[in-house]
């Protein structure tokens, strides 16, 4: 039997891979042998990451995509499938957060978070999932969050927490529907990870970090590499009996 983590010849789409966790996921899957389509809102960052991967000898393309627009998502699927021949792996990583007291959140701010974090994940699963079901094979990994299991403190972020809880349940729903047709659907739920999303927040309000560390048994932020390795496992044949799984990795945060 070969190495079940080997992704040689597999083709992956990673959304929001222009920076942060997505960028490291794209590089990690490429290092395991996969070809990568970067589906990212920020064209410049998307191209930079695609070039980074090509320079290591893998095939990579940047497809400028706003995951909130289902027509753009369908075009993303088509372009990636045409370029690579087919798609084996989808990583739904694009996400945004909004910090504000729940009673004051404006409609547009609520909808922006739900549109990227939940609707965007669904549009991508629907579009790429249909392609995978036609082939009878595929692995989808969404980046949810421990915020889908607990509600964070002290920062107020009800829209984010609700969106991530929905991603976890969407994952279980699709896993059940598609298991017999060869498509696995799982999610990874990180705790606090040192990326622009978390670092910008604690730069603005340093006290938040003190609370986060006090509540995290391991007393540190996680790294994008730690998240990427979990995604690699779920994307690969190493996790062939996993579907509907929510892999929480949070330095122990949800264990207390
Ligand atoms: N950083 C953390 O502490 C943490 C913890 C748990 C979960 N997460 C999740 O991990 C994922 C990645 O987070 P990150 O920390 O790397 O964030 P980040 O802000 O550093 O990067 C997010 C990326 O998504 C892209 N993006 C945003 N909206 C998009 C859209 N509509 N279409 C396409 N791309 C879009 C951005 O351009 C950016 O490149 C998110 O889903 C986030 O919710 C992060």
Q: List how many beta strands DSSP finds.
A: 7
Helix count?
8
Bound molecules: nicotinamide-adenine-dinucleotide
Spatial separation of the terminal alpha carbons: 40 Å
Order of helices and strands: EHEHEHEHEHEHHHE
**Percent of residues in helices:** 40-55%
Largest sheet: 7 strands, parallel
From the spread of the alpha carbons, the general shape counts as: globular
Q: Please state the CA-atom Rg, rounded to the nearest Å.
A: 17 Å
CATH class group: Alpha Beta
Q: For the residues shown, what is the average pLDDT? A: 98
- List the strand order in the largest sheet: 3-2-1-4-5-6-7
Strand content bin: 5-15%
CATH superfamily: NAD(P)-binding Rossmann-like Domain
CATH architecture: 3-Layer(aba) Sandwich
The low-confidence parts are none
Question: Structural class from helices and strands?
Answer: alpha/beta
CATH topology: Rossmann fold
| Overall domain count | 1
Oligomer: single chain
